[in-house]
Amino acid sequence: MPLLIERADFADPRLRAFLQSHLDELAPTAPPESRHALDLAALQRPHVRLWTVLDDQRIVGTAALAALEPRHEELKSMRTDPVRRGRGIARTLLDHLFQDAKDRGIERISLETGSMDFFAPARALYTRAGFTPCAPFGSYRDDPSGTYLSRRG
């Protein structure tokens, strides 16, 4: 059965659990002031678009795009179920988000991720997907725990 990518259903208790697991997994990776993952309430704000990846009715991935300024959005809440990592789910989801952004006239997508070893696979994925280093954007400031990347088009 192929993966199903759809806009998030915030009433789905599986989504709440998946997102909480994301926050729990990130908690030990950086000091609180260096953690920028969005919680469930923040992901429901009008300027955020969250998608889920389903495999046989199980949520195996999430990612969001949050508006920063006209034609510039931020990639947020990118997560793949730990037991499913390395199987192309994140790349499939990224491609879906890139197409959605293109269809809406978004010209730039930026992201912040950790600089620690835990985030090395994510940084490699983003580099393969065309992201390049950039200066902190939006409300971010230089932080040794953060890595800032951006992609045009």
From TrEMBL:
<dbReference type="InterPro" id="IPR000182">
    <property type="entry name" value="GNAT_dom"/>
</dbReference>
<protein>
    <submittedName>
        <fullName>Putative acetyltransferase</fullName>
    </submittedName>
</protein>
<dbReference type="InterPro" id="IPR050832">
    <property type="entry name" value="Bact_Acetyltransf"/>
</dbReference>
<dbReference type="InterPro" id="IPR016181">
    <property type="entry name" value="Acyl_CoA_acyltransferase"/>
</dbReference>
<dbReference type="GO" id="GO:0016747">
    <property type="term" value="F:acyltransferase activity, transferring groups other than amino-acyl groups"/>
</dbReference>
<feature type="domain" description="N-acetyltransferase">
    <location>
        <begin position="5"/>
        <end position="153"/>
    </location>
</feature>
<keyword id="KW-0808">Transferase</keyword>
<keyword id="KW-0012">Acyltransferase</keyword>
<dbReference type="Pfam" id="PF00583">
    <property type="entry name" value="Acetyltransf_1"/>
</dbReference>
